[in-house]
Amino acid sequence: MRLHRFYINKNIEIGKEIRIDDSEFLNQWGRVFRLKSGDKIILFNGNGFEYEAHFKILSKKEAVLIIDKENDPCLSASSPHESASPEVHLFQSVIKKDNFELIVQKCTEIGVSAFHPIISERSEKKDLNIERLVKIAKEASEQSGKVKLPKIFEPESLEKAIENFSGELFVLDFDGEPFSSLSFLRRQESILASSTAPASECHNHPVSQTQHPSSTEAGIQSKRIAALVGPEGGWSDKEREFFKQKGIKSVSLGKQVLRAETAAIAVSAIILLK
Prior knowledge:
Layout: E1 5-7, E2 17-20, H1 23-32, E3 40-44, E4 50-58, E5 63-71, H2 80-83, E6 87-93, H3 97-110, E7 114-119, H4 130-144, E8 151-152, E9 156-157, H5 158-163, E10 168-178, H6 183-194, E11 224-229, H7 237-246, E12 249-252, H8 260-272
Parallel strand pairs: 1-3, 6-7, 6-11, 7-8, 7-9, 10-11, 10-12
Antiparallel strand pairs: 2-5, 3-4, 4-5
Helix pairs in contact: 3-4, 3-8
């Protein structure tokens, strides 16, 4: 039986006890999942490992967990495609609250490493509840088996966001070239077909929020790919000209006119779900 997974912001060591008095956790464990003393769960804290633990005590007031063993997800990667996934950043124009939250939830499950909310000319909203987005990403990571939480940045202008990013960028636009024309993605597919390199999520090659390695120990380039997705009204002519000046290629996912949230989820899946 698959054990429930939970992210905790605590140090975890084999054989040690962890005490938790957070009411949200206690309610979830005791009332929602109806767990009890002796039952097992999986914990992770973003260090690249998972930890199997059992409840020594579980009451309405506190839980005491014993850490039984450490699991390395890198050693159980089911295919070379999983093990060489690129680090994908999503630059998403700020859209309606519920739709942006859907993007964070589904794209976290797919494997997006970072979300960069951007303010574009046709953005209807200018702010987001980052704390809530972090919670949504945490729950999606628990559900999907991720061992690291994605980074969620504060909203910033399109120009500033691009200026601060180092990696391959492309912009989704209905009038762009076919998605298959992206040469760096074709190179990535070639790497995926032949690589047994560790996954970008693995503790061997952690993705730092300030440092981004350019290659793995196996000599395979560690790709950082960014997709820019526009708002409900699409990119303005001024923004399209800006992309041209910056040499950012515009690509299309096809003839269908997709909603912003659909485009974000679709492009993440195309890159990551190989």
